[in-house]
Structures are given as structure tokens and as C-alpha cells.
Amino acid sequence: MQCVILAAGEGSRMRPLTTSRPKVMLPLAGKPMLEHLIQNVRDAGITEILLVVGYHEEAIRTWFGDGAAFDVLIQYVVQRKQLGTADALRSVEPFIHDTFLMLNGDMILERSDLEKIISLPCPVMATSTTTHPESFGVVTVEGETITSLEEKSLRPKSNIINAGAYLFDAGIFSILKKIAPSSRGEYELTDALTDYIRDRTLKAYPLSVWMDVGYPWDMLTANEHLLLDLTGEKAGTIEENVIVKGQLILGKGSVIKSGTYIEGPCIIGENTVVGPNAYLRPGTTIGNNCHIGHAVEIKNSIIFDDTKIPHYNYIGDSVIGSRCNFGAGTKIANLRHDHGPVKVGGMSTGRKKFGAVIGDDVLFGINCSINTGSSIGSGTKVAPHTLVTGTIANNTVVR
User: Where is the Nucleotidyl transferase domain (predicted)?
Assistant: First the structure.
């Protein structure tokens, strides 16, 4: 069996984190999101993978190569213009042998669910449930049979949604050739499923675990989940008078300096220096070549590679891009005074605690204050003693 993974899109809802990388390469628990998916596909028994790539495809090709390092065989199919999921799937037709698993590349699934899906007769759609079905494709089900599918309905007929994982055979391609562009000008895979639904042949498989990583704050939820079963591994150096409680992965060449207190689960990448006297709280994932310095506290945050947070900083419930630098005393707020859900760009995160989304190459002067729900574009420069709030475009100078 083969697996097709759609990984061509930018992920515009993830801006500014996708300024210079595709969405599927955003890091979760120390690895690109796509790597977690490929590993689970492999562990479910599928080793031939077709990756549909497009936006910043070089990042995906460089990381995964031919797949040998991950014990799989990867072929790349390029979707030059993102014209919808059906268009992406049509591009792999020449490479498909027979039955195949198809997955959106921006979600978290369990190996056990993948094993069960591929054991079923096709066609199959994986489903999940949600408290906000209006944001997804809503399905109705009778027994195991899917009876309707409606995209982003204002009046959802159920709380059961299309989870973006399917089992098809080569017969899907004859259906794809018949569909017309949607109102958005895209070829939608959901339109192709109409034939199966009408014939009552599309079966539902309810997933035990499913996480859609659609917005930056979803990264924190997925990161928290992936860290639950973390097994500690310490390949770096831990100096005397360091306290580590809970599970910690410490990468090669990294050093934790004296006086640092770590509450796991936490991940620290390679060639990163932490401390002295730093405090890392649960859920924190720090990339490679970072510096987390004296009197810095980081809580439940994702820090990308090559970022420096060196003096008297607080980072809470935030996602920080690569090559950022925080001036001494710069801090991020993560809780509203009314304890209501934090909003980013007018959209609720659904989280009582959320700090900021910060793109790549953002430079902060000393003693800056970053308000809850701020989104700061890549390449932004912030003057000392500045309050930053709201949404800041890429390459802005904030004074």
C-alpha cells in the first residue's frame, strides 16, 4: 500500500510562521509536524510515500530526502499552483498502484488509527468530533455509512467532521476528472466524494485522536499532546546544581548551566545553552543553537532554532520563530485581566493563557512589553521600552 500526503500549501492561517517555510515543517515536540505523520505512517506498515509539495518545497526535500533516513521511500510530486485538494490528488495518479491512504499533512494522528483504517475496504473517510463544527466539513452518519457532507455550514447538522484522512483505490481518479471548480476557484476533494455518498459506499472511521493544526495556538495544543509520552534522553551536558524534574530530552552539544531548574516534559535541541539560573516549565520545546540565559523563565512555549532569549525575560504560552533576539527585560504577557479567552487578530484562541506569535528574525530592544494575543511579523524591529500589541506586519519598525 502507498500513502499520499498533501504538503503543498503555505498555511496562510499560520502567518507569520510560514513566511519562509511550509506549514508542514513547523516544529512540534522537536520535529517538523510532517515527520510525526510520516513516522506513524511507517509504523502502521506503509513505507512508500508520495509527498505532494509546492510552497517552499525545498525545505521538505532537504529535510526528508529520499526517505532512507526515516526507513521509507519518498517520491515528490509538485503542485505548482495550489488549486485545491482534488487538484493535488490528481497530480499523483501516474504513481498510484492500487489502494492508498491519503492524508492532509497538517494534523496529528495515532498509528493505531492508521492501522485500522488501512485494514478496511475502501472508500473510507476518517471522522472526528468537535465543539465548533462550523469550521470544518460536517458529516452525518447512519451506522458506519456517511450520508451527507457539507463544508463549513453556519447551521451544522452534527458535530461529526471530516478529519482529512481517507482510504481510496484508483477508482477515485475517474471521479476527480468530472468535478468543476468550486466558488473559490479550487477543485475540492469533498466534491468528488458526492458520488460515493450518493451510492452509500463511503464509510466513516471515527478517530481516537485527531488534532488539526490550523492556527499557531493549535501548535501548543499539539505540542502538549506529543510531550505526554516523552521518554527522557540526555545527550548534552548538565552542570552541577541543576534540578530536573520530569522528562527531559537534551540534545547533543547542549549545556544546562548551574542554578537552572527544569520541570518536564521539556525538549532542548542540539548546541543550545540554557542558564545559568534559568527556569523552564512544562510543555517547553527549544530548538537547536538557541541561548536561554540568566534569569529567563519559559513556560509551555515553542522556540524555533537559532533564537536568543538571554537576560531577564519571561515567555509564556507563545510560539517564537527562528533567529529572534530578545533584549534584556523583554517579556510576553499571557493572561487577560478578565481571564477571558485570548484573541489574536480578532479570532479567539480558545485558550485562557496565550502569549504571542512571533515570526522569524524579530529583534527586540531592552525592556519591551508584548501584550497577550500579539502577532509580530517576520523581520520586525522593536525599539527599547516599547509596548507591542495587536497584529504587526512583516518588516515593520515599531517605536
Answer: 4-226
Question: How high is the mean pLDDT of the chain?
Answer: 93
Distance CA 399, CA 392 (A): 12
- Tens of pLDDT, residues 343-361: 999 999 999 999 999 999 9
Dmax (CA) of the chain = 68
Domain of 200 in residue numbering reads as 2-214
pLDDT band at 188 (very low <50, low <70, confident <90, very high): confident
294 is catalytic: no
Q: Note the pTM of the prediction, 2 decimals.
A: 0.91
CA distance 332 to 369: 6
The grid coordinates listed for 339 are 481571564
Task: Cell numbers for 62, please give them.
Answer: 532537504
- List the grid coordinates of 44: 502502521
**252: its cell numbers:** 547533543
Contact call for residues 260 and 276 (beta carbons, < 8 A): yes
DSSP 3-state of 282:
coil
Q: What are phi and psi of 311, to 5 degrees?
A: -150, 120
C-alpha cell at 63: 529535510
Closest CA to 250 of 285, 295, 298, 299: 285
Residue 219: inside a domain, yes or no?
A: no
Phi-psi region of 222 (alpha: psi -120 to 50; beta: other; left: phi over 0): alpha
d(CA 1, CA 290): 40
Q: Looking at 225, 294, 311, 385, which residue is catalytic? A: 311
